[in-house]
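Input.
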Amino acid sequence: MIDLTTIDQDTIIARGQYATIRAAHEDEKKRLQMLCGQFLSIAPQILRYMQPPEGDTPEIGAVLGLLSLGRETLDKIEACVADIEALDLQRSGLKQVAWGR
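Output.
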């Protein structure tokens, strides 16, 4: 068991903040992985719709929907990357205070 009375209160607070930011950072990285997977799955679907069997016409409406989804997903990826970068900077600053490294 750890005797918390022997640890400075500012250090305990900083460690709690660090843990919170670190968890948020990990969550954003998982979100980025999911978004990238979603983005990667769009291109083959577009190809499939644009290369229908002989005699059929391409499903342009579906392709336009997929292109829109791709743009939205790319916007989300861009925002997620910015969030990860900001959380990384915040985490680095708190690490020094929380752990003295």
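Residues 47 and 56 are 14 Å apart (CA to CA).
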